[in-house]
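This is your field. Please look over both lines of this record.
***
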Amino acid sequence: MKNRFVALIFAVFFGGFGLHKFYLGNIFAGIVYFLFSWTFIPSILGFVDAIILGTMDERKFNAIYNHKHYFPPAYTSPIVTAPPSVTPIERLDVLIIKTCATKAIGATVSECIVATGEDPQKVKETIDSLCRKGFLLPDNREGDYAVVYRPI
């Protein structure tokens, strides 16, 4: 991590050779400063860089030269979530009815458990509740006579 004070010292004492540019990671500018150091123009530019580095805010320096390590201040905002539109038991009801409706011959309890991913006991209780309310009709499948549930 680069230090602003070290860059300032390099710019004041070795600015004519571009050492501060090498330190700050600007290799191309450092080479140009070094190649033209015999003209004293880089010395003037190094002095200007020293003034800029000396007056620069620490946060701005970190944002420019330490961007890999710089994390801007985090602004927290409250997370707003919408209230659930349906209760979980109603959602399970809907999933079970959809599962039974997608199969032409109805769905077994195990097919409903796999489709919903819920606890088997909870699925069985919900299927019984749907049968009592008149939404599902228990029936036997032809061939293996397994109990299937069909929507009414």
Remarks:
- DSSP finds eight helices and two strands in the chain.
- The mean pLDDT is 85.
- The radius of gyration is 37 Å.
- Helices lie at 4-14, 19-23, 27-35, 41-55, 58-65, 88-102, 109-116, 120-133.
